[in-house]
Specification:
single chain; alpha/beta; Leucine Aminopeptidase, subunit E, domain 1; 17 helices; 18 strands; 20% strand; elongated
């Protein structure tokens, strides 16, 4: 991972590799430039290049490399357009940070000096996120090892100095450390989600989860098929029994608060590969169903960061891990499954498997741990993509206060969410003539009827459900973001960590 520090201008050699300078579209000169004679010389050098050329470079996301000299010392300047300053927000800063990092990698600038180009303190962490997250690449299976080694060498050898006035250096270094921990958790999640199904199945995912025990205050318990069956988690057993890779339930405990304080419960769907089972999917783009474990990978990433950040809270994460395959032992349309909480489900479509395993995990987690509140993540419905596209996740729940605070965090991290309603009429669509409910509600409102199904398993505990089917990985229509390379995005990790940090006492 790239090394990032803050420093003052007098502590660095500007001739060392590249100096990154942000240019506002209106041509205004930041106050920190005006106050420093050396920076003022740089500004004069840039302006001497010609306003006609600079006008285009000042537009958001544009770049130009300029070779010049300062006090007879050659320097290289990388100009980056900031666009209109009143349009700058956290996500535009995050994207700019990623663009800077990628451009420097392309030009092989391994020592990067960035003149801090904003005064808004809330922009600092997004800049770091962009600089780091953009460097992610899933390259472990590339045949060309030399190319892979070169990419890793850049990240390992890249040193970034963010030049500030030094007045808040300790605070800035703390922010850098925190942000790098979060980015490392995103990388961990992306690696798991990107991994192909012949490398990640329920057992190997459980093994990866066990690695979190090296983090302070974390313990990991893995339930095998016999334990899952004995406990009555029949939704998980039903979905997983068609595969030779037996289901697992991964339970991650993090305790760093008073023992009698109720934990937060996180639940993540991890279907390591989803063929649809007997209700088999079309072959087109079925390869993308390796991403159907993304909800579980998101939750594991959150737990990794929670431990490394040493947040003063108690959290339990439950990840039901299955592979949904067609075989002679698969569950079938028409089956009736007795769930953990005693309710019965008429199976009408075996491709609506995520809600089956989530339902058991939710009811088991609530029964055993009596949490303050519950948040779950799942690539649950294609209907969510139809409704909201591939840049916005759906959120549904039974507690508006919880959802409103999650929206605030989403605004901070640039992970867009939209609340969908859970009206009584949707519950009518999942009524069954032969069981407590059926596992699909028809073609209309599919994301909401899936949430209505899940709500039968959360009792009255405050609960928020994230449908990340459109945002868990880059798809057709996904907006290009420098910090989200192709493949798994780790959507939701930064959002939840922001929420946990800023809502310590939420009940």
């Amino acid at each position: 991972m790239v090394n990032i520090i803050t420093t003052t201008l007098d502590k660095i050699d500007l001739s060392d590799n590249v100096v990154v300078v942000g240019l506002a579209e209106d041509g205004s000169i930041p106050i920190y430039v005006e106050k420093n004679s050396k920076l003022n010389q740089i500004s004069n050098k840039i302006n001497s290049f010609g306003q006609t050329h600079l006008k285009n470079i000042r537009k958001y996301g544009k770049f130009m490399t300029l070779a010049t000299s300062l006090d007879e010392t050659p320097i290289t300047i990388l100009l980056v357009g900031l666009g209109e300053l009143n349009k700058l927000n956290s996500d535009r800063i995050r994207h700019i940070g990623g663009l800077i990092s990628l451009r420097c990698k392309e030009l092989n600038f391994t020592r990067i000096n960035i003149l801090k180009f904003f005064s808004e303190p809330t922009f600092f962490e997004p800049l770091i996120e962009g600089l780091v997250l953009s460097q992610y690449e899933f390259s472990k299976f590339k045949e060309n090892k030399s190319e892979q080694d070169q990419d890793l060498s850049f990240s390992d050898n890249c040193n970034i100095n963010i030049i500030t006035d030094g007045s808040k250096r300790e605070e800035e270094l703390s922010q850098i450390n925190k942000t790098k921990i979060i980015c490392d958790a995103v990388f961990f999640s992306r690696d798991l989600a990107n991994s192909p199904p012949n490398h990640i199945n329920p057992g190997t995912l459980a093994h990866a989860a066990k690695s979190l025990e090296s983090t302070n205050n974390i313990t990991v318990q893995i339930l095998d098929q016999s334990q899952i069956k004995e406990m009555g988690l029949n939704g998980i057993i039903s979905v997983g029994k068609g595969s030779q890779n037996e289901p697992k339930v991964i339970i991650v405990n993090y305790n760093n608060s008073e023992k009698n304080e109720k934990p937060i419960l996180l639940v993540g769907k991890a279907v390591t590969f989803d063929t649809g089972g007997i209700s088999i999917k079309p072959s087109d783009r079925m390869d993308e169903m390796k991403f159907d474990k993304s909800g579980g990978c998101t939750v594991l990433g959150i737990m990794k960061a929670v431990g490394n950040l040493a947040l003063p809270i108690n959290v339990v994460a439950i990840i039901p891990a299955v592979e949904n395959m067609p075989s002679g032992s698969s569950y079938r349309p028409g089956d009736i499954v007795h769930m953990y909480n005693g309710k019965t489900v008429e199976v009408l479509n075996t491709d609506a498997e995520g809600r089956m395993i989530l339902a058991d995990a939710l009811s088991y987690g609530i029964s055993k741990y009596s949490p303050k509140y519950v948040i779950d993540f799942a690539t649950l419905t294609g209907a969510c993509i139809i409704a909201l596209g591939t840049n916005v996740a759906g959120v549904i729940g039974n507690n508006d206060k919880l959802i409103q605070q999650l929206k605030v965090s989403a605004g901070s991290t640039g992970e867009k969410i939209w609340q969908l309603p859970l009206y009584e009429e949707f519950f009518d669509l999942i009524k069954s003539n032969v069981a407590s409910m059926k596992n699909i509600g028809g073609r209309t409102g599919g994301t909401i009827t899936a949430a209505a199904f899940l709500s039968n398993f959360v009792e009255n505990i405050p609960w928020a459900h994230f449908d990340i089917a459109g945002t868990a990985w880059t798809q057709d229509g996904t907006a290009e973001k420098s910090y989200n390379p192709k493949g798994a995005t780790g959507f939701g990790i930064r959002l939840i960590l922001n929420f946990l940090e800023n809502n310590r006492n939420f009940v």
